[in-house]
């Protein structure tokens, strides 16, 4: 995919009579669209984020890379990039496999959160159903029973964590209260002197 600035010219269309205009044959639309879309995105990033950016594209059948913006700006951007330590340069770089792995991890986290939400809703629904209707829990199938068990265990764990945090907070308040009382007592001794 070679980038050459051009203005689209229709080939072989007639104007007011029989005079024909001929223009250059244009590159395939899909390649141009992708390239100009990429150039537009990089330009927007550069403007909106206030960073310098450049694009270097190595076409399949060409020894020369396509560079944007041409000239000194690209050299300045590359110079700054190459002056960074190698660790800093490679910090956010991804190849196709790395990008796919990162996307997969994010998607799996979202999926796990959604599964937790669904299990919580299911547990609440089952609890409410069996509590309000006074149904027999032996009517649950294995999946419902496991979901309910997980829901109850999670709720118990949350309650235990809350109790621990309340205990710690109460102990801290008690210690602060004792320190405050001691401080007031010390002030009384100072006033006596």
From TrEMBL:
PROSITE patterns xref list: MADS_BOX_2
Example GO BP: positive regulation of transcription by RNA polymerase II
First-listed, main subcellular location of the protein, grouped into a coarse class: nucleus
Pfam families, A to Z: SRF-TF
GO molecular function terms listed in the Swiss-Prot or TrEMBL record: cis-regulatory region sequence-specific DNA binding; DNA-binding transcription factor activity, RNA polymerase II-specific; protein dimerization activity
Acyltransferase as UniProt keyword: no
Coiled coil: none
Keywords: DNA-binding, Nucleus, Transcription, Transcription regulation
Key word Hydrolase present: no
Domain MADS-box: 37-71
GO cellular component terms attached to this protein's record: nucleus
Compartmental location: Nucleus
The protein's name: Agamous-like mads-box protein agl80-like
